[in-house]
Write a structure and sequence with these properties.
With about 325 residues, this protein is of the alpha/beta class. Helix content is about 30%, strand content about 25%.
Length: about 325
Amino acid sequence: MAKKPEGGPRLIVQPDDGVEPVLGLIASARHSLRTVQFTLDDPRFVHAIIDAHRRRVAVRVLLNPQKSSGERGNDASFEQLSRAGVAVEWTHPRFPVTHEKAIVVDDERALIATFNLSPKYFGETRDHALLTEEPAQVRAIVEGFEADWHRKPYHPRDDTALVWSPDNSRRLIAGFIDGARHTLDVQHPKFVDATVIDRLADAQARGVHVRILCGGKHGLSPWDMHDTFASLRILERCDVKVHRQKHLKVHAKLLLADGKRALVGSMNLDRSAFDLRRELGVTLDDAAVVDRLGQLFDHDWHKAERWAPPDPLAADTHDIGELPHDPHFAHD
């Protein structure tokens, strides 16, 4: 079951906790329900949102219209919600992609997730979400939603522990890495930002024990694959340890520092995720949640394999030991 420390945030882990905590959150709405989703195509969640509307909850839904590839994954859900009378809009056109995955209930509770509301992310992937009742965080997420709904600018503050793209995410993630003193664990699928790679190499150089848990080639576009392979090869030459996870697909976006701080969010370590897209994450130091995330990372690390990333230009080596190709699993 998901862990809920007394008086603190609640951690939801996939695939361990399944759909029930998220469906339960939606079902708990009494007055208002806001959600912004990169992908919403699981009928269970579509029906739960419609049920909330039918019990007279004020529901509003923002859906990302298309992925960077041009693929449209939300059209059917948009039409179904609209037919049911739910207030649903496409996300702010300022952002070429809205990759945020958030739910706010009754202006009191907010879910910040790495997973999409799609069946794959409740059985095949390692993913996390944080349910917060911290008033300043909930208020800030509502303000961000309202700004995007009304197509207005939003200027997030830095004092809520929230990490927003394209506003402050690169700076706050770099600062998180810079703050590590002893250990730094990274569970991410993409490594496509030179600033972050520089920070990770510097952490290792100053004596921080850095471990990277990635998914290899699986789910990466050709251009992201080349950059990720090259970045991880550079980090390996700096003595950073790299493992490739295969028992679950890596979709988590997790940083852990010194067993005391964590950063979880929707953003990949990717230039477009920092500079162009709407993304949302959160930093936390809740001891019980950070400890649980550390246990999960260690479990995944020890089930993974030590991996030497291949030469990006040696195409004949790229598929060695990889998971079977899944055309429906892509790190956008």
